[in-house]
Amino acid sequence: MSTTDFPDPTQVEGAPHPRQTLHLYGQGHAEQAFLEAFNSGRLHHAWMLTGPRGVGKATLAWRIARFLLTQPLDEGGGLFGTPEPPHSLDADPENPVCRRILAEAEPRVFHLKRGLNDKKTALSDEIRVEEVRKLTAFLHLSAADGGRRVVVVDAADEFTTGGANALLKLLEEPPPLVTFLLVTHQPARLLPTIRSRCRELRLTTLAPEDLALALTAAEADAGDETLALSALAGGSVGEAIRLLNLEGLESYAILVELFSTLPRLDRIKAWALAEGAAGKTNAARFDLILRLMDLFLSRLARAGLTGPPEPEAAKGEAQLMARLSPNGATALKWAELHQDLGARARHGKAVNLDPAALVMDMVLAINTAA
């Protein structure tokens, strides 16, 4: 088996691959920072693209790759003077380089990501040293035209210790005209020596209007539910698409309705919610329920400090949270429960606790706190 037999770990299910996404919304400051470095003639050899998951880090990495490989190397003056510096990272999609990148056939790009496990039966959970050795072989070959080359690492916080050390050696002595683009959701997980050799491009969560544009571009338009989806997804396009695919808004509305009677819990509805997460066929729904309960508690804790959420992620949410978390003292209690139940959920999944029992246990804990 090969990696092509499995879903690409760098692509959100139901969305175009970042390599196929030509436009990036809401991250103009990061694009401008890279462009200024390029136009200054002092382009750093390694960049760390940081920020929450799903806000466009990989999309920016591929935009930079297309931009760099379509720019002429000699920026000096000629017969007609010095050419005007580029004002954006846009590259002509009909350029042969862009077409080859789209087809995964550009010889000057290396995409470093998770490969197969030892048994070749599934993708590894980490980027192992074997994958970095393939990158080393790529870098030992000279570019056919002597031009630039780009390495996209997605995601850099998934390295094994051996893989991270192997990458560090390449960053310490980079070949000429090679640019490393490290996509990372949790930069603290990277070796300090790797972080110190990279310049950071920080991406932020998207405003509702930018999220709406990004969803439309990904053919995942949320329509009238964009504001609610943005609130629940935390400004992350990737998370918004996941929620749309799994009917997350509808499930969150059910959760809010269930909790609307607290502390008089409707145990029949609670058990129906829990049983909906039982069994291997409902694994995705189980993960979704845990994620939504985590979001509910975090929003509940925040409501005690900053007031009911605006916009609401479900009808009646603001009224419910104003009642359950009216002040800072209650906010602290909900924050403590949020932390406790988060740890309980991680432990329950790690030891394969019955999903229905885990969900019911968490619902009962929330009712007791209420």
Task: Describe this protein's structure.
- The protein has 370 residues and is α/β, with parallel strands linked by helices.
- It folds into 2 domains: 3-202, Rossmann fold (3-Layer(aba) Sandwich); 246-369.
- Helices cover 49% and strands 7% of the residues.
- It has helices spanning 28-40, 57-70, 96-102, 129-140, 161-172, 192-195, 208-217, 226-233, 237-245, 248-259, 267-275, 283-306, 317-324, 328-350, 355-369, and strands spanning 46-50, 109-112, 149-154, 178-184, 199-202.
- The chain has a 5-stranded parallel sheet with strand order 2-3-4-1-5, sandwiched between helices.
- Strand 3, helix 5 (161-172) and strand 4 (178-184) form a beta-alpha-beta unit.
- The radius of gyration is 23 Å and the shape is elongated.
- The N and C termini lie far apart (51 Å).
Name the CATH superfamily classification of the largest domain. Answer: P-loop containing nucleotide triphosphate hydrolases
SS class: alpha/beta
CATH class of the largest domain: Alpha Beta
The CATH topology annotation of the largest domain reads as: Rossmann fold
Overall geometry: elongated
Residue share in helices?
A: 40-55%
